[in-house]
């Protein structure tokens, strides 16, 4: 596959991922003619489809498609056996219906499950091209081709991108409340200003409640101050106790000591 074509395919799939939220591995719905053509061209779909989509993918087939291949008999026996290797995508039909109807009901009008459709039917590809966000694959001779995004997909992409840059409905409603005075000053409408004031007041009350809760629990600085005061108080009490313990000797005690000394000298 050429380098330029690979870059184009990668750009297409990136667009589908960013705009329509496609996820990897990509889910690829294949129809009966696509399987038969791949078999005729000796193309391994499990190898070639991930190369074209530039990432992992899983091929899926509906019971209605398998019933169609089985009804074709021996001519499609190889394609029927090949379809058994793919993951089964259940449909709502108890009995097999036309393949185009089955696939159309799955894709619906918005491709809610983000399927890539691989089909050899130009009519079916044209129909799905009108649905935004449906990547389309087909086989041209021995080449697997990913169609460029359809006009519907590109228009949807532009719509989403423009929505990101334009003001939202809420922002436009806010702008409607703005008034310009005669002096050229921009002021809010009275109702809008009142709502804004009430909002600010509620925020202020919440802050005061939080502040009151914090004041109930003394902080580190307050705790340290109380601890320091307590230590100083204990130091003062210790000093007073020491002062109390220092007692002066009484006169009688000193006289007794003097008498005892005189006796010893005699």
Automatic annotation (TrEMBL):
* UniProt keywords, alphabetically: Nucleus, Ribosome biogenesis, rRNA processing
Question: Which Pfam families does the annotation name?
Answer: Fcf1 (PF04900)
GO BP, one annotated term? rRNA processing
Instruction: Give the region (Disordered) as residue ranges.
Output: 197-266
Comp. bias (Basic and acidic residues): 197-211
At the top level of its lineage, which domain of life is listed? Eukaryota
Q: What is its main location?
A: nucleus
- What Gene Ontology cellular component terms go with this record? small-subunit processome
Protein name (Swiss-Prot/TrEMBL): U three protein 23
State its role: Involved in rRNA-processing and ribosome biogenesis.
Q: Which CDD domains match?
A: PIN_Fcf1-like (cd08553)
Q: Where are the transmembrane segments?
A: none
Ranges of Basic residues composition bias in the record = 242-251
Localization recorded for this chain is: Nucleus, Nucleolus
Belongs to which family?
A: Belongs to the UTP23/FCF1 family. UTP23 subfamily.
Q: Does the keyword 4Fe-4S apply?
A: no
Q: InterPro entries, per this entry?
A: Fcf1/UTP23, PIN-like_dom_sf
């Amino acid at each position: 596959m050429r380098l330029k074509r690979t870059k184009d395919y990668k750009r297409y799939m990136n667009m589908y991922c960013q705009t329509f939220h496609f996820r990897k591995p990509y889910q690829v719905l294949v129809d009966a003619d696509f399987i038969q053509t791949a078999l005729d061209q000796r193309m391994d779909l499990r190898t070639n489809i991930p190369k074209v989509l530039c990432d992992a993918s899983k091929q899926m087939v509906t019971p209605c498609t398998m019933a169609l291949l089985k009804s074709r008999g021996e001519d499609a026996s190889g394609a029927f056996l090949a379809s058994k290797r793919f993951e089964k995508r259940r449909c709502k039909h108890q009995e097999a219906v036309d393949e185009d109807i089955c696939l159309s009901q799955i894709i619906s009008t918005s491709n809610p499950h983000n399927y890539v459709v691989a089909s050899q039917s130009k009519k079916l590809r044209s129909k799905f091209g009108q649905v935004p966000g449906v990547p389309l694959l087909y086989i041209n001779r021995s080449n697997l081709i990913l169609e460029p995004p359809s006009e519907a997909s590109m228009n949807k992409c532009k719509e989403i991108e423009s929505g990101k840059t334009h003001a939202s409905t809420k922002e436009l409603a806010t702008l409607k409340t703005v008034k310009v005075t005669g002096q050229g000053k921009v002021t809010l409408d009275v109702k809008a200003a009142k709502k804004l004031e009430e909002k600010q007041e509620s925020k202020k009350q919440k802050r005061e409640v939080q502040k009151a809760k914090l004041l109930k629990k003394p902080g580190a600085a307050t705790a340290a101050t109380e601890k320091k005061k307590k230590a100083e108080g204990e130091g003062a009490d210790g000093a007073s106790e020491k002062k109390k313990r220092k007692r002066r000797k009484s006169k009688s005690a000193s006289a007794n000591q003097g008498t005892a000394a005189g006796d010893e000298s005699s």
